[in-house]
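Hi V.,

Quick status before I head out on leave. The structure for the redesign project is tokenized and pasted below; the design run finished overnight.
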């Protein structure tokens, strides 16, 4: 699921609740193997979601390069797991729970798995949104042979100016991230407005139902 308004609203509420709790309730996501800087293609990758207080449910999500949010799974303290699409099993992901640590396992890391990983802790009555753990494959520099370069230069009709016009700018990913953050701010404001409206309606109903004095 990508860029869903419901999921953005969930993240917005999570950010609000996390900020209100302060540093003592900070949630941290990091690689289980501390020596990993960048995962390799086909590698088994394990990420831990750690916090001081126990929670009854942890959800894992991924923010890809385009700024789209993908739900991965929800893991419960009862050792049950629900994957994307309400599935009970997944050929690509695993989850485990140890004390106050939830572990996400990517069985074989692919280019499609690249992004920033987050976990959301459910501790009644608030949500706690974690820090992000980037996971990207190392950049591969390809080198063409002199013969290939010569053939390309002779046959190509595209000028350097044309290439520069069609090449995505270096700030494209940054713009996508800014767009995603602005979406979160928008849904945060909407959530707060809905909360205020709900509170006002509740107070009005309670006042109307209060018996009038004789």
């Amino acid at each position: 699921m990508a860029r869903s308004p419901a999921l953005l609203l969930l993240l917005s509420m999570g950010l609000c609740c996390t900020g209100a709790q302060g540093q003592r309730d900070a949630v941290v996501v990091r690689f289980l193997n501390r020596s990993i800087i960048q995962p390799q293609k086909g590698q088994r990758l394990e990420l831990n979601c750690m916090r001081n207080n126990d929670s009854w449910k942890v959800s894992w999500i991924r923010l890809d390069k385009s700024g789209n949010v993908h739900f991965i799974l929800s893991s419960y303290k009862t050792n049950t797991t629900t994957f994307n699409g309400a599935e009970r099993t997944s050929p690509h992901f695993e989850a485990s729970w140890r004390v106050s640590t939830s572990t996400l396992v990517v069985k074989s890391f692919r280019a499609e798995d690249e992004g920033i990983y987050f976990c959301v802790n459910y501790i009644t009555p608030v949500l706690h949104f974690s820090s992000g753990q980037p996971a990207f494959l190392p950049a591969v520099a390809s080198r063409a042979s002199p013969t290939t370069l010569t053939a390309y230069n002779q046959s190509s009709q595209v000028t350097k100016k044309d290439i520069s016009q069609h090449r995505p700018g270096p700030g494209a990913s940054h713009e996508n991230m800014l767009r995603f953050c602005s979406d979160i701010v928008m849904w945060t404001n909407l959530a707060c407005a809905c909360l205020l409206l709900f509170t006002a309606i509740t107070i009005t109903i309670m006042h109307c139902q209060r018996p009038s004095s004789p």
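Above is the designed sequence. The chain has a mean pLDDT of 74.

G. will cover questions while I'm gone.

Best,
W.
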